[in-house]
Amino acid sequence: MLTNRTRPRVDIVWPVAATLVAAGALIPASSASAAPAVPVPSAASSAEAALATLPVKGRAPKTGYERSQFGQAWTDDVTVADGHNGCDTRNDILRRDLTNITVKPNTRGCVVLSGTLADPYTGKAIAFTRGSTTSSKVQIDHVVALSDAWQKGAQQLSAEQRQNLANDPRDLQATDGPTNAAKGDGDAATWLPPNKAYRCTYVERQIQVKVIYHLWVTAAERDAMNRVLSSCGATTPAPAPAPAAPAPAPPAAQSVYYANCSAARAAGAAPIYAGQPGYSRKLDRDGDGIACE
Question: Which stretches does UniProt call biased (Basic and acidic residues) (predicted)?
Fold first, then answer.
């Protein structure tokens, strides 16, 4: 078994966004990748300052939202970090967030076969094994959910900018599959990670992404973010907003059918994990539990 090729781990650093605010300018979403981090007095205070710059509006209608509005899922054809490196975005994030990984031979070190995730959302260690019944145990979360982004400014972005957003490592986190499903498209007012120790970082990352991609927040979302940030570094954290009610169960898998992967992508459904509506073994050629990768 091959081990993953040597590559530096990618860390999510809040001061990138803080630097933007301090400079009075935002990085265009089409080139939002590498900006040198500079020391700042406090990540939480920088995040609070950045949050204060975000417009506060109601949600725009969800009309017109499809996953396909953000480009092909996990495409490498982006201009953010790790774009055009020859590996799809899902595997880029697995290699970044997992440890002790092994990779599939003859894939240029791209395809992750196994590893261990120290899940920041739950605080649990999760063993990952690529396969039809196991791959979905570790999923890639959009820290700012794409549906949420669509309703808060992404409709005004170009197709290239939306594709960058959907594949930007700063907006992506490997996490526990059921926890990711429970989040759905919730924002900070309706869902926060169960692991309270990670909530400050989680909210800081959401603010960073919204600054970079010119998105807005709702009043309830802003207030929830401020409550979290006010507790950062405190001995006794302030009460967090109540988590959202559990997401409704998805329709039975057999109620959705795609003749081929082109049809699944046209519907904005790809990739499809085992157990999700529309999954079938005929669409999963390598039998790893992920169809239409």
Answer: 281-293
Greatest CA separation found in the chain?
A: 55
Question: Which residue do the tokens 């630097």 mark?
Answer: 19
Tally of CB atoms within 10 A around 208: 27
| Residue 196 token pair | 């309270």
* Distance from C-alpha of 278 to C-alpha of 272, rounded to nearest angstrom: 7
Q: Which residues pair with 173 in a beta bridge?
A: 141
Domain boundaries, the chain: 2-28+68-248, 249-286
